[in-house]
Specification:
A: 113 residues; Immunoglobulin-like; 4-stranded antiparallel beta sheet; B: 114 residues; 12 strands
């Protein structure tokens, strides 16, 4: 069974440019998470979806970050415009929900220059 | 709010030696506790978790962790490490009433030398 798939694996962009990350969760997983992992830090939750509904987006910087999960399956995370401080690894995870184990993708490493 | 402290950012150890990775948490409510492992170029994987019952939990690859409520700790141990255990280890906590929100520590890099 395929795990959580993220693309791209690596992305280098200039500051002020837009960028988007894509995540395909494990089939049947209703809960999807986006995490931000800065260098030398643990992952921090950005947003959590239950099906297509964002149930926790309190940590998402809404001035420049947006996310969507229109059909309750795949999800995209967008940054517009990107800043130098956005350089980090963006992790996607999914679970069956309600105390189930979260499975993580390999992440997208973003470098803003 | 919960927080997790992993005091050791790096732990170097020789193969077959014992190891302990420390994790302390802070919370005003009852929590669940987790250890995740991240091997090079791979995603985070759940290593073990404490939800209730026995305070000693084990993984399939020889790691164990003990929940100590009085010391608010959940240290990870292995009596004899292998080269393949080289990875980043993250301790995490979640509120029992909001189990889908994980709070991670900063991670400990375990480096096993031959």
């Amino acid at each position: 069974e395929a795990g959580v798939v993220q693309s791209p694996r690596y992305k280098i962009i200039e500051k002020k440019q837009p960028v988007a990350f894509w995540c395909n969760p494990i089939s049947g997983h209703n809960t999807l998470y986006w995490y931000l992992q800065n260098l030398g830090q643990g992952p921090e939750l950005l947003i959590r979806y239950e099906n297509e509904e964002a149930v926790d987006d309190s940590q998402l910087p809404k001035d420049r970050f947006s996310a969507e999960r229109l059909k309750g399956v795949d999800s995209t995370l967008k940054i517009q415009p990107a800043e130098l401080g956005d350089s980090a690894v963006y992790l996607c995870a999914s679970s069956e929900g309600h105390s189930s184990e979260a499975f993580f993708g390999q992440g997208t490493r973003l470098t803003v220059v | 709010a919960q927080s997790v402290t992993q005091l050791d950012s790096q732990v170097p150890v020789f193969e077959e030696a014992p190891v302990e990775l420390r994790c302390n948490y802070s919370s005003s409510v009852s929590v669940y506790l987790f250890w995740y492992v991240q091997y090079p170029n791979q995603g985070l994987q759940l290593l073990l978790k404490y939800l209730s019952g026995s305070t000693l939990v084990e993984s399939i690859n020889g790691f164990e962790a003990e929940f100590n409520k009085s010391q608010t700790s959940f240290h990870l141990r292995k009596p004899s490490v292998h080269i393949s255990d080289t990875a980043e280890y993250f301790c995490a906590v979640s509120d029992r009433k909001d189990t889908d929100k994980l709070i991670f520590g900063t991670g400990t890099r375990l480096q096993v030398f031959p």
